[in-house]
Amino acid sequence: MPTPPVPSADPAPGPCARTLTDLLRRYGAGEPVACEPLAEGLLNRGYRLATTRGLFFLKHHLSGDPHAVIPLAGRHRATAALAELGLPVAPPLADRDGHTVVVHRSRCYALHPWVEGRHRDGGQLSRTQSRRLGTLLGRVHRALEKVIVRWSPRRLPELEPAARPADTQALIDQLLVRVRSRPRRTGFDALAEHRLLERRTLLSAHTHLRPGRAEVPAEGWVHGDFHPLNLLYRTEGPVEPVAIVDWDRLAVRPRAEEAVRAAVIFFLRPDGSLELPKVRAYARAYRSATGASPVELAAAVHRVWWERLNDFWMLRWHYERQDGRVDHQFPAAAALVGWWTRHAPAVRDSFCD
Known about the structure:
The protein has 353 residues and is α+β, with helices and mostly antiparallel strands. The chain is built from eleven helices and nine strands. It has a five-stranded antiparallel β-sheet with strand order 1-2-3-5-4, covered by helices on one side. The protein has a two-stranded antiparallel sheet with strand order 6-9. The longest helix is centred in the middle third of the chain and has 22 residues, at 127-148. The radius of gyration is 21 Å and the shape is globular. The two termini are 25 Å apart. The model is unreliable at 1-12 (pLDDT under 50).
């Protein structure tokens, strides 16, 4: 995950019965029967809402994500347009006044139809299904360019320059102080120290490979957070996607970089290696769907590798915020950096040939 979400400081509990009743009346969606909070997701809050008229997904949108660049209503319009093109999305429902965003007691909600599905990582996908995943992301990128241009100008952000090794080395030193000052060291602390020292060595050896601005791949509208927890597959029958969810980071960014980031999350093994045959199938399908060139993908691979080499958001959550929700992801994600560095030509070729 390249850009960590910002956890909300809002300690408020889930919506009360009165709030649920008021919201559902605005939608004409019956009376509340049960409201179950969902564990998935690090940003915003989601609920499985059962009513006298069926099942729904209620999303409570919290403020504080600096990466959300399009107003919520605009994101809703984009997903509705994607659904009209036949892409697997679940646009929000409109209330009786035609609004998809409802503000109730200073809180912002959206109600979506409930989609029954399950998450699958790359280890649960065949090579054929991996190809379909690449085609799906390619279709999303092409479709976004068509639907958003109708009502929104193409706002090109000022991309931040690639991370500076000196800044990263300073951060490593700060994190090492935190790790080594723990009164009772754990296995997580030992692994964190090992990976921090490894990363310091890798950075020193590869400083000269810092990407320049000229290496930025072509930009376009992207989902912004395409990974296994934001894609639902059928629970029965053919293994087909039924919904791409969480469009909060819809933005103009380098498209090929999103394709690379998604692949290294989907196809990451527990030991930190990548399933390169599946990556190759996925990347070929993505290039075919978008027309992206091998040169464009190669530049994206290099930039995302550098990004990962300089990234410590999981350790910062653990040691600076005392938030351990992503600790389970750290062993594989941290091991990937060293493995990718050692196998850089093979990784590049899997995306480009």
